[in-house]
Amino acid sequence: MPEQLKDNLSIGRSVEQWLGPTIFPNYVTLRTLTIRKERDSTYTTSYVASTMGMKTLPMSTHSTL
What we know:
Elements: H1 3-10, E1 15-23, E2 27-37, E3 43-53
Antiparallel strand pairs: 1-2, 2-3
């Protein structure tokens, strides 16, 4: 475990990692992972995935995400 991660968890801060998007033809899913240390010295992890719909663009239109 990297030192900065251990240091933040040891002082009670949660840490969050951006996992990047998953791109599908009509929607995009954004993902994050969070780790936090509980009072009883156990760890809780949370995975969050948020999905957004995308408009269908004509073939001649160029778009970047």
